[in-house]
Design a protein that fits this description.
This protein is α+β, with helices and mostly antiparallel strands. It has one domain. The protein has 4 helices and 7 strands, in the order αβββββαβααβ. A 5-stranded antiparallel beta sheet has the order 1-2-5-4-3, with helices on one face. It has a two-stranded antiparallel ribbon with strand order 6-7. The longest helix is centred in the middle third of the chain and has 11 residues. The termini are far apart.
């Protein structure tokens, strides 16, 4: 006789612990970073940056950077480097965020990019892999 399926146990085993870390999506060519597992509202800053603000107190708890590979090609053309050593698949997040306002024509407030850098500080010090899965 077949055993009865325990849905609650199955769902519980599938849940993963929240881990604040950057994530690169090759499908959308976007970088996502959530610092806290909290409800948020998205605020589009410009064509590259969207910040996620906590509903509770409006602080920045995450961000999304779109068109990462396009940005990297623009940085290469300008001689800016945010890659880790000789690997083209690993990038440093802090320079990536810092270079955007200086390398592309933006009609946004540079302060928003600085806010992202200061809000996340050392959490952006880890390199991010863009390696295809």
């Amino acid at each position: 006789m077949a055993e009865e399926l325990d849905i609650d146990r199955l769902i519980g085993s599938m849940k993963r612990e929240f881990e604040p870390r950057p994530y690169y999506s090759p499908e959308s060519d976007a970088l996502y970073f959530y610092c806290e597992n909290e409800d948020y509202a998205a605020e589009r800053i410009d064509c590259w940056l969207t910040v996620f603000r906590a509903f509770s107190d409006n602080r920045i708890i995450g961000f999304k950077i779109k068109n990462v590979k396009i940005l990297l090609s623009k940085f290469d053309a300008l001689g800016l480097d945010c890659r880790l050593s000789t690997s083209k698949w690993f990038i440093w997040l802090q320079p990536l965020i810092a270079y955007i306002p200086n390398s592309v024509a933006l009609e946004s407030d540079f302060l928003q990019y600085r806010n992202v850098l200061t809000s996340f500080g050392s959490r952006l010090a880890e390199p991010l892999s863009l390696e295809p899965a």
